[in-house]
Amino acid sequence: MGSRSFRPIRQCLGCRERVAQDELVRLQLTQTGVAIVEHPDQRRSGRSVYCCPKLGCFDKLVRRREIVFKRSKYDKIIVCLTPKQVDRLRYAFKHAARRLRADLGVGPKDN
Q1: How does pLDDT run across 67-104, given as a tens digit for each residue?
Q2: Does residue 97 sit within a domain?
Q3: What is the number of domains present in the chain?
Q4: What is the CA angle 105-49-56, rounded to 5?
Q5: SS3 state at 16
Q6: What is the CATH number of the domain that holds 55?
Q7: What is d(CA 101, CA 41) in angstroms, rounded to the nearest whole number?
Q8: How confident is the model at residue 1 (pLDDT cuts 50, 70, 90)?
Q9: What's the per-residue H, E or C state across 32-84?
Q10: Cα–Cα distance, 14 to 62 (Å, whole number)
């Protein structure tokens, strides 16, 4: 048997597309709220959601001003965001998405 490289697949909460995990921006639940994880070495275990590096997908994700982190099939954590938190996340998302697109060699378009 040959060795296969395994790439975890995650779903973008904006467009609901299934994409390789390393091609998505990770939003992680922390003790202080929601944070965007830019570097793989910053990752810690915990609840996370993923979003395509497109600003349109991020806008869909935060449109209701809440992010839902699932703990199990029947249990979830809902984080309500203030307008100031949404603005801070959008700013961090833009920088993380730009860096991810550059790493992937994808054009600078924000669809």
Answers
A1: 989 888 889 999 999 999 999 999 999 999 888 888 87
A2: yes
A3: 1
A4: 55
A5: coil
A6: 3.30.1230.10
A7: 18
A8: low
A9: CEEEEECCHHHCCCCCEEEECCCHHHHHHHHCCCEEEEECCCCCEEEEECCHH
A10: 9
**Does residue 10 sit in helix, strand or coil?**
strand
Going by C-alpha positions, the residue among 46, 7, 53 that lies closest to residue 30 is: 46
Mean pLDDT, all residues of the chain: 84
Taken as a whole, the chain contains a residue count of 111
Q: Which two tokens stand for residue 51?
A: 């979003």
The domain of 33 spans: 9-102
Upper half-sphere CA count for residue 101 (Cβ side, 13 Å): 17
Residue 25 contacts residue 52 (beta carbons within 8 Å) = yes
